[in-house]
Amino acid sequence: MSLLVKICGLSTRETLDVALEAGADMVGFVFFPPSPRHLSLEVARELGRQAKGRAVKVALTVDADDATLENIVETLQPDILQLHGKEPVARVRDIRQRFGLQVMKVIAVETPADLAPLAGYAAAADRILFDARAPKGATRPGGLGAVFDWRVLEKLELDLPFMVSGGLHADNVAEAVRISRAGGVDVSSGVESSPGVKDADLIRAFIRAARATDELMVR
Q1: How far apart are CA 56 and CA 201, in angstroms?
Q2: What is the DSSP-derived secondary structure letter of residue 11?
Q3: What is the CATH number of the domain that holds 37?
Q4: Active-site positions?
């Protein structure tokens, strides 16, 4: 199966178009005010229409309530809800049932002990995304450019599709996939010139590097 490539935190028509034309499988939109990538619903509506039918649309939220999720779902019409907060298993299950959409739960990783909640989340979600644990005092849980030790996932046995994120860029994506055996990669800060500002050349380079990894795996 081909490696899935997700470009997250897109916020302009121009950079979204670059990601789509370069072949991103998934495009992510952030709905979390502390993030420099946070979108208003008005912008989200426009970008959602632009991406429709061209890639899987993913809405990233952090411990959002039902009213917030309803507004996002109505406006963006996402294919997947990415839950990047401390949502317990019961909340993940409830969101999945309530909105009838695929749910991707993010699990913050630093040590093997961080995988302890995985079984519960795997029973409630459709996908898992492993991201680096944010340092103490951080104002947001991801998009910080931090890398975790991918060897934590080396012996992972998981029936669900899973992706890796956290400090990925064109120069390390191949190593991340080789070690983690992930079926997908997710990048945000690694394709930016400054926080929240996507760079067209870096987007193209990342997708190109990910696709080259894909070819090596086929061989």
Answers
A1: 22
A2: -
A3: 3.20.20.70
A4: 8, 131
**How many domains does the structure of the chain reveal?**
1
C-alpha to C-alpha distance for 14 and 185, rounded to whole angstroms: 22
Angle (deg, nearest 10), helices 173-180 and 200-218: 40
Torsion (CA) 83, 87, 90, 96 in degrees, nearest 10:
-20
Is residue 188 left, alpha or beta, with left meaning phi > 0 and alpha meaning psi from -120 to 50?
Answer: alpha
**In the numeric block, which tokens belong to residue 183?**
């079926």
Range of the structural domain that residue 133 is part of: 4-218
The pTM assigned to this predicted structure is: 0.93
**Alpha-carbon gap, residue 201 to 21, rounded angstroms:** 12
| Nearest 10 degrees: Cα torsion 128, 145, 5, 162 | -20
How far is 24 from 13, CA to CA, in rounded Å? 15
User: Which among 169, 176, 174 has a CA at the least distance from the CA of 201?
Assistant: 169
Tens of pLDDT, residues 76-119: 999 999 999 999 999 999 999 999 999 999 999 989 999 999 99
- The pLDDT of residue 218 is 43
